[in-house]
């Protein structure tokens, strides 16, 4: 009986959270972020095609619905996720997230699959590169980002995969070129954990930090997407309440909590990444709190 009560309570809070998100989209007043009236030119720097839909869609929806101009720089062309590698990838995720709680035997099994996934991830030359690129353009169209605002790199210094250390100084240089070319005045990217702990995400963060330290461009504002623990990460819309609470611990203007005004659009955008649209990605997008809310923290430069 007590279990039934708990389940009913969770469903009620889930529905209430969704109602709060949908209601915020109607009022368009869920945050004061960039609400001074000036239209900003924003550069979102991601590591892989699909990062924009899986992690940043609340931010993208927030910015585009308010008329800000957004550019997306994707540092790699991504890898393919064929059926035979889905199990490897799942083991990789499990190993990365909860290895401390696994038995020794399961850890060893995960390590074997992790090795296979790593080897697979290091190849961009399997004919999937252009497919991943096209998928990103289609997802961006759903998110109202024009194709001429989307740039996907395919360079040896930025190969997708764990174990591939990216050239952070080169990344900083490329970002500086983008900033100058498009007149960017605000950058958004991963924080130093990179949501999933993926080393490519973390390298993007450190590359941006290098850029901020060394750039001669003045008045560049930068924000990072805050990584949250695994319980919050898979709590769906419930996490909006914890995000609001955590925002209260930060000084005003240093932390922004953005509700996704169109969570359905995020699902549609991710579904455009057809080569990645496997069962666990569908589950991820449905239950990930990053589909419903983004919490951004100002990076000091
Ligand atoms: Zn990624």
Task: Give the helices and strands, then pairings.
Layout: H1 2-27, E1 41-46, H2 51-54, H3 57-65, E2 69-74, H4 83-98, H5 104-121, H6 129-142, E3 150-152, H7 168-182, E4 186-190, H8 194-197, H9 199-214, E5 221-225, H10 230-233, H11 239-247, E6 255-259, H12 263-271, H13 279-287, E7 293-299
Parallel strand pairs: 1-2, 1-4, 2-3, 4-5
Antiparallel strand pairs: 5-7, 6-7
Helix pairs in contact: 4-5, 6-12, 7-9
This protein binds zinc ion.
Describe the structure.
This protein has 301 residues and is an alpha/beta fold. It has helices at residues 2-27, 51-54, 57-65, 83-98, 104-121, 129-142, 168-182, 194-197, 199-214, 230-233, 239-247, 263-271, 279-287, and strands at 41-46, 69-74, 150-152, 186-190, 221-225, 255-259, 293-299. The termini are far apart. Helix content is 51%, strand content 12%. The structure holds zinc ion (ZN). Residues 47-48, 51, 198, 201 line the site of zinc ion.
Distance between the termini: 54 Å
Second CATH tier, the architecture of the largest domain: 3-Layer(aba) Sandwich
* Corresponding CATH superfamily of the largest domain: LmbE-like
CATH class value of the largest domain: Alpha Beta
Quaternary structure type:
single chain
Instruction: Tell me the strand percentage band.
Output: 5-15%
Briefly note the structural class of the backbone.
alpha/beta
- CA gyration radius, whole angstroms: 19 Å
CATH topology of the largest domain: Rossmann fold
Q: How many strands, which pairing sense, and closed or not: the largest β-sheet?
A: 7 strands, mixed
Reading the helices and strands in chain order gives HEHHEHHHEHEHHEHHEHHE
Number of distinct helices: 13
- What small molecules are bound in this structure? zinc ion
Order of adjacent strands in the largest pleated sheet = 3-2-1-4-5-7-6
Q: Tally the beta strands.
A: 7
Runs with pLDDT <50, length 5+? Answer: 115-123
Q: What count of structural domains? A: 2
Mean pLDDT, to the nearest integer, reads 84
Please tell me what the overall shape is. Answer: globular
Helix content range: 40-55%
């Amino acid at each position: 009986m007590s279990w039934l009560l708990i389940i009913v309570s969770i469903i009620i809070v889930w529905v209430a959270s969704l109602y709060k998100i949908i209601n915020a989209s109607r009022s368009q007043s869920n945050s004061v972020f960039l609400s001074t009236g000036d239209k900003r030119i924003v550069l979102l720097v991601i590591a892989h095609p699909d990062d924009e839909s899986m992690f940043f869609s609340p931010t993208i929806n927030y910015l585009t619905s308010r008329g800000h101009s957004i550019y997306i720089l994707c540092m790699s062309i991504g890898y393919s996720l064929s059926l035979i590698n889905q199990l490897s990838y799942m083991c990789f995720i499990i190993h990365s997230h909860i290895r401390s709680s696994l038995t020794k035997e399961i850890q060893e099994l995960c390590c074997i699959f992790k090795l296979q996934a790593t080897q697979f991830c290091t190849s961009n030359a399997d004919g999937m590169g252009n497919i991943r690129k096209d998928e990103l353009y289609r997802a961006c169209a759903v998110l109202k980002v024009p194709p001429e605002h989307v740039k996907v790199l395919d360079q040896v210094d930025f190969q997708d995969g764990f174990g591939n250390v990216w050239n952070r100084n080169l990344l900083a240089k490329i970002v500086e070129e983008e900033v100058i070319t498009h007149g960017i005045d605000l950058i958004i990217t991963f924080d130093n954990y990179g949501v999933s702990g993926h080393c490519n995400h973390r390298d993007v963060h450190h590359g941006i930090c290098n850029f901020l330290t060394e750039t001669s461009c003045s008045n560049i504002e930068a924000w990072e997407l805050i990584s949250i623990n695994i319980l919050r990460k898979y709590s769906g819309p419930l996490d909006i309440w914890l995000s609001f609470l955590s925002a209260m611990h930060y000084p005003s203007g240093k932390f922004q909590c953005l509700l996704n005004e169109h969570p359905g659009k995020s699902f549609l955008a991710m579904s455009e990444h057809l080569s990645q649209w496997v069962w666990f990605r569908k589950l991820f997008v449905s239950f990930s709190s990053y589909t419903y809310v983004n919490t951004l923290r100002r990076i000091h430069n």
